[in-house]
Design a protein that fits this description.
heterotrimer; A mainly beta (95); B mainly beta (110); C alpha+beta (161); A: five-stranded antiparallel β-sheet; C: 161 residues; alpha+beta; SH3 type barrels; five-stranded antiparallel β-sheet; LSM_dom_sf (chain A); ribonucleoprotein (chain A); RNA-binding (chain A); mRNA binding (chain A)
């Protein structure tokens, strides 16, 4: 059991092997941790301007490309002022 | 699970598992384009294949890439490889060469 | 819901596939298998840097090279119908767990976030504009995909600095 079952229908943050950050609702997963993520947004970090959110919609992300799946606390997340958060973008996973 | 469709190509509409969703027989003796893991690309006449997607191609040409821009390949700079076996495990993409064309950005917002 | 069930349901729908090598493919899903190998038709391939494009009538992509697939929003609602018939077990499991099985129309979604999350997603699902049949549909995803064809590579670039 992967423990992901309890994240279903909750907002999660996915960090993929190329260093991107996707936020959305976890709708499903399988034994290889391929996941379905609904209402997916990408958050693009930058040191010179605020976080840009790009609306992407429904996604299947392949498990072997996923580094982290984290549960988002929506009340905390909704208090974030994304436009004023700066940060270094993540680099890709080095194989 | 066990339903094998020999040579069948019913587009996988209701069957999830079967031999292959790719019917390579339709490409036999035709020119195909292949992309490999790592970025190489080649094109040649498909002479044979097996279930693991190993391919035999003849009159194969590889499209060469700039050493400092490894994913930019040049349509005009090629090298001839002749008769080759392509390892199935290294294949990323297979498509018929016929109809493949470089186009201008089709997504420009009007 | 299993990712591969969703993918199977998405057959004949337009989609965008990004490969691990950064190339993206826009096309209609013809078929898929349990390894996520896919056949697309009427494909537009976009290079990693997002400035070169190719048209190809069809292509076969090995599942293991896929990074993600972007699927039209309405497809997830179509799975539910055969999901009921198919994976009753799963539903049962969710029920036993109590809490969150009630069919999941969370109000919030992206639209509730202050940071601009509601650019255009929240209402998409509820089906306006999908009545027009497949060509209409294709146009829509073409548009969305186009946006992505242009933007994602840049986003990816930023990330890579």
């Amino acid at each position: 059991m992967s423990g992901l079952e309890s994240y279903i229908n909750h907002t999660v943050s996915i960090i993929t092997a190329d260093g991107r950050n996707f936020i959305g609702t976890l709708k499903g997963f399988d034994q290889t941790i391929n996941i379905i993520i609904d209402e997916c947004h990408e958050r693009v970090f930058s040191t010179t301007s605020g976080i840009e959110q790009i609306v992407l919609g429904l996604h299947i992300i392949r498990g072997d490309n996923i580094a982290v799946i984290g549960l988002i606390d929506e009340t905390i997340d909704s208090r974030l002022d994304l436009a004023n958060i700066r940060g270094e973008p993540l680099g890709p996973v080095v194989h | 699970m066990a339903d094998k469709k020999v040579g069948g190509n019913n587009d996988g509409k209701e069957k999830r598992r079967k031999e292959s969703i790719l019917d390579l027989s339709k490409y036999l003796e035709k020119q195909i384009r292949v992309k490999f893991a790592g970025g190489r690309e080649a094109s040649g006449i498909l002479k044979g294949y097996d279930a693991l997607l190993n391919l035999v191609m003849d009159n194969t040409v590889e499209y060469l890439r700039d050493s400092d821009e490894p994913y930019k390949l040049t349509e005009d700079s090629t090298r001839s490889l002749g008769l080759v076996v392509c390892r199935g495990t290294a294949l990323v993409l297979i498509c018929p060469q016929d109809g493949v064309e470089s186009i201008a950005n089709p997504f420009i917002t009007q | 819901m299993l990712p591969l069930s969703l993918l199977k349901t998405a057959q004949s729908h337009p989609m965008l596939v990004e490969l691990k090598n950064g190339e993206t493919y826009n096309g209609h899903l013809v078929s898929c298998d349990s390894w996520m190998n896919i056949n697309l038709r009427d494909v537009i391939c976009t290079s990693k840097d997002g400035d070169r494009f190719w048209r190809m009538p069809e292509c076969y992509i090995r599942g293991s090279t896929i990074k993600y697939l972007r699927i039209p929003d309405e497809v997830i609602d179509m799975v539910k119908e055969d999901a009921q018939a198919k994976s009753r077990n799963r539903t049962e499991m969710n029920k036993n767990r109590g809490g969150n099985s009630s069919q999941n129309q969370r109000g919030g979604g992206g639209g509730g976030r202050p940071g601009g999350g509601n650019r255009n997603n929240a209402g998409n699902r509820s089906g306006q504009g999908y009545g027009g049949g497949p060509s209409n549909n294709a146009m829509r995803l073409g548009g969305a995909a186009g946006q992505q064809g242009n933007r994602l590579p840049h986003a990816a670039k930023n990330n890579r600095k």
